[in-house]
Amino acid sequence: MASKGYAQSRLTQTGRAAQLWVIEWWRLVHLGALILVLTLSPSSYSPQSRAILARHIYLNTAPILLWFTVLCALVTVVLTRIVLVTALSYGLSQYALQVVIRVLVLELIPLTAALFVALRCTIPDGAELTAMQASGELDEMRRQGIEPVRREVLPRVVAGMFSGITLAALSCVVALVVAYIATYGFALSGLAAYTRLFGQVFSPAVTLIFVLKTLFFCLAVSLIPMASALYGMSEASVRTSAEMRGLVRMFAVILLIEVASLVGNYY
Question: How far apart are CA 230 and CA 252, in angstroms?
Answer without folding.
Answer: 20
